[in-house]
Amino acid sequence: MSLEIRKNSSWWYGVFQVNGKKTVVNLGVPITGKRPRKRTMVGDDEFERSRGRAMEAHDKQLRRLQEDRTGEKTLTKLAEIKTGREVRFPKLADLAEHWAVIPRRKPPGTSTPASAGSPWSASRRSPPTTSAASRSSSPSSPRPPGPSWTRKRSGAYRPRRGMTR
Question: Is residue 45 domain-resident?
Answer without folding.
Answer: yes
